[in-house]
Write a structure and sequence with these properties.
six-stranded antiparallel sheet, about 15% strand, alpha/beta, seven-stranded mixed sheet
């Protein structure tokens, strides 16, 4: 292309648009040169010169744009965080530049990253520059450039682990790139010159505790980066907030020892308890604003697809109880109409649902705040507020809406919330008690009073009646945002393209404090089931209610080739994604495709009480959608409990062949969905036993085979 442009430009110069001297060299004139040099230019000469000039300018502009696009494609920095403007202003004087990366699933590591940034800037002032980066921005094609070109000397990673050892969706691509580079071994000094530390967020009740954080730490070290401090693992099953606080103190000590900076005593105090500005509005204005919000969510989002930040409010078109009337528990099937929403999904994806707190719960919360539910107000972020204070939820609104739709009232409060409550407590004893619970010294008392009994924020508010926070402080520092609940989608769009369904186990237990704990989302969705009129597909009282939702993509997918053998293991609601798998396979079969063997293992307590979707499973077997159906009833025999892992032995030979590749030509897949703490672990061990018994492998060899299956995507888990 460039050669053609050069040839065209040369030809233009040779013609009359170029100076006469150049023309003389190319084509000697017939008249003497002295006469030709002094001939007056004609009108045609001016037109030709102008055309050539415009061509040259256009060519140079195109060349610049092409070069600029190439430059930006390969060196485009991550999007700026809200704190970048502040950090950039401080960076010329900064002694240390720090990048804080976070990989989040539910928002916890993102929140802690903001808190770390705020606390670090407060502690060191202009001595530091801090930049926040969501690991979702660190794609495989950009990662090497990001970490090797003018990167901050210190990189801090807050990495969450999701499910049974999986990276979060947002950090999946980065971690796979990092692990692959480390495993390759050919670039042992790729990240030399980078200093790092990792704080992992996980739950010790899962077998692969903090696996993602461990992977980041090990891989960075393998690529030549230097540890500032050892890996710290936060445990959400015990005291994640306390773990983070202790790690933060250790981090600062390491920074000060390594980089020679110290706490800045002269810096202005940052508000410990972030709070919104609150304005009272008329009740009519609040109701009108709420209507606008509802109407906006009932339409297809402007960018064409629903997200957590911009969900679609869907109508419920079917809700039914799946358990028999003799069951003491409840499980509901809910179908949502996603027509005109822009939502698309595949079997195995997850449905994010925004639920609401019940009326009795918000009435108790309003009583603690000493305000009526129809109190109407608006929130705004004050100037100079800390970066940890997010933008407020949609408002103006009534207190009833704010408490029902946006506030997590039934989870245990964080220590920061206790500090904020202490700041407004008017009773000296209560104030000191709250301060102690929030302190490092009060770790054991916090665990005994809040952690172990899972005492909710609402219960804490009721336990300290003198602490009545103003709304700005309550929504800014005490009542966290109500997060979406995720469910494995239990349908296939090949069955009904405008419908997505969820299978929901209704949570109802008694806590150690004697409180009846009902799951926020499951109890909310159960309200759509008509309990009085069995002919109603939806409870008449809930027909006009829309549920904000969105789809989160998952890697838990069927193989592209339907001939590949698959094994599905999912007791209870763990069957949900496999219901979508069966619908998908049935549609493929009807379209004339050949299906490979499929083994389904399902488990429940009683055959006559909680054998959900029984007709569909047995119909799939009869219609050759699946090859084998094994069901375990754990409570049918009081002397001997049978679980899904016990049923695997009935087809051990086939499972061994699938794992070893003799069945399915090394393409067969094993899927596990459900409880991570017990069932998934037991299934994992059962697969080991099959390999050892039929293959003669030692325990560590069997583990190696299963690990390679997982790494290649042939052994997948969707567990919680």
């Amino acid at each position: 292309e460039e050669n053609q442009q050069k040839h065209f430009l040369t030809a233009a110069r040779v013609r009359r648009g170029a100076p006469q001297v150049l023309q003389t060299i190319a084509h000697p004139p017939k008249t003497p040169m002295v006469h030709s040099m002094f001939l007056p230019p004609t009108h045609s000469d001016f037109i030709t010169i102008a055309s050539s000039f415009l061509f040259i300018v256009s060519f140079l502009i195109l060349l610049f744009l092409k070069t600029d696009r190439r430059r930006r494609k390969h060196s485009n920095p991550p999007r700026r965080s809200p704190s970048d403007d502040v950090a950039t202003a401080r960076s010329p004087e900064a002694m240390l530049r720090v990048a804080v990366y976070y990989g989040t699933q539910t928002g916890t590591s993102a929140r802690l990253a903001r808190e770390l940034e705020e606390a670090t800037l407060h502690r060191y002032g202009k001595q530091v520059y801090v930049r926040l980066i969501d690991l979702e921005q660190v794609t495989a094609e950009r990662a090497e450039v990001i970490f090797t070109r003018r990167h901050e000397p210190l990189a801090i990673f807050l990495q969450s682990t999701y499910g049974d050892g999986e990276p979060t969706d947002s950090s999946l691509e980065f971690i796979h790139w990092l692990r692959d580079q480390a495993d390759d071994g050919r670039l042992p000094e790729l990240l030399k010159g980078l200093t790092f530390c990792v704080f992992g967020l996980g739950n010790s009740s899962y077998e692969q505790f903090n696996a993602a954080g461990k992977c980041v730490d090990h891989s960075l070290k393998s690529l030549g980066a230097a540890r500032l401090m050892k890996l710290h693992l936060g445990d959400d099953d015990y005291d994640l907030e306390g773990d983070f606080r202790r790690w933060k103190e250790a981090l600062w000590a390491s920074i000060e020892d390594t980089y020679g900076i110290h706490a800045d005593d002269g810096i202005d105090q940052v508000s410990v308890n972030p709070a919104y500005c609150v304005s009272t509005v008329s009740h009519e204005d609040a109701l009108e604003a709420e209507k606008r919000t509802r109407d906006a969510m009932s339409k297809c989002p402007r960018d064409g697809f629903a997200t957590q930040q911009s969900p679609f409010a869907a109508s419920v078109i079917l809700a039914r109880e799946l358990h028999n009337v003799t069951s003491t528990r409840s499980c509901v099937h809910v179908e949502f109409d996603i027509s005109d929403s822009g939502i698309t999904y595949q079997p195995g994806d997850h449905l994010g649902v925004f639920a609401e707190n019940s009326l009795p719960v918000i009435q108790r919360a309003a009583a603690c705040l000493r305000l009526p539910l129809d109190h109407s107000f608006s929130l705004s972020v004050p100037e100079g507020s800390p970066v940890s204070l997010p933008q407020p939820f949609s408002n103006p609104c009534t207190l009833a809406t704010a408490l029902a739709k946006y506030t997590d009232l039934l989870s245990p409060p964080r220590k920061g919330a206790l500090e904020a409550l202490a700041s407004v407590s008017t009773d000296k004893v209560e104030c000191e008690r709250l301060k102690h619970l929030a302190s490092t010294d009060g770790k054991n008392e916090y665990e005994a009073f809040i952690g172990s009994p899972k005492r909710s924020l609402l219960e804490v508010l009721e336990s300290f009646p003198s602490a009545v926070p103003p709304l700005g402080l309550f929504f800014g520092a005490i009542g966290p945002r109500l997060s979406p609940r995720y469910y494995s989608i239990s349908s296939s769009p090949r069955c009904k393209s405008n419908v997505v369904s969820a299978t929901v186990a209704v949570v109802s237990t008694t806590t150690p404090t004697g409180r009846l704990h009902e799951g926020v989302a499951s109890s909310y969705l159960a309200k759509f089931v008509s309990r009085t009129n069995e002919t109603d597909v939806v409870n008449s009282a809930m027909k006009e209610t829309r549920v904000p939702l969105f789809v989160r993509s998952s890697t838990f997918k069927l193989p592209r080739d339907p001939i590949v053998p698959i094994v599905m293991i999912g007791p209870g609601t763990g069957f949900a994604p496999f219901r979508g798998f069966l619908q998908e396979r049935e549609a493929l079969l009807r379209a004339g495709n050949t299906l490979g063997p499929a083994y389904l293992f399902f488990g429940c307590r009683h055959e006559d009480q909680d054998f959900i979707y029984r007709d569909e499973m047995e119909g799939a077997l009869q219609n050759n959608v699946i090859s084998v159906l094994q069901v375990a009833f754990s409570r049918s025999n009081s002397s001997h409990k049978v679980y899904v892992q016990d049923k695997l032995a009935s087809v051990a030979k086939d499972l061994h062949g699938i794992m070893k590749g003799t069945i399915g030509a090394n393409e067969g897949r094993i899927y596990v969905c459900g409880d991570a703490k017990r069932m998934a672990r037991d299934v994992h061990r059962a697969l080991h036993v099959i390999l050892m018994n039929l293959g003669g492998y030692a325990a560590h060899e069997a583990e190696g085979i299963v690990k390679r299956l997982a790494e290649s995507g042939r052994y997948q888990k969707d567990v919680w």
